[in-house]
Model the fold of this input.
Amino acid sequence: MNIFLIGYMGSGKSIIGKKLSNTLNYSFLDLDDYIQLKEGKSITDIFKNRGEIYFRKIESKYLEEVIKDKFNTVVSLGGGTPCYGQNMSIIKNANNTSSIYLKASISVLAERLFKEKNNRPLISHIQDKKELIEFIGKHMFERNPYYTQSDITVTTDQKSINEVVESIILKLF
Done:
């Protein structure tokens, strides 16, 4: 089975994905890292030189490739991946896959992301937490209809990495 972790940036997809894959003895794959490897360019460079439309096309292409070619893999998706094209349908209709929405509150996301905003091109221009909360709130409103199509939702607020992984495993098996 492949497990797709879905959620907003800062929701813990990568850190939870790595721990979950180790616990299950699965492989771990970050879709953004996979795209960068396949394209030989950073996500930032792809956006800058080719634009978002190109990025979203290749993102779908590589998502389908991962679904077809990987097995027993925990896949961390980009925060926007499920929201573009037919990506969520592709995940939902794939054989032997499960999608898990790592749900974090806007205040928790803002707290996590404000500390690392300089490493996040999408929010690096934001100056204060109030502006960040508004930005996240708008995005979450737009993305929630996609995220909530996941097979499983796990709330991550006030939980340790181990507690989130345990919740996922209990809901999966």
Notes: The mean pLDDT is 93. Residues 108 and 158 are 9 Å apart (CA to CA).
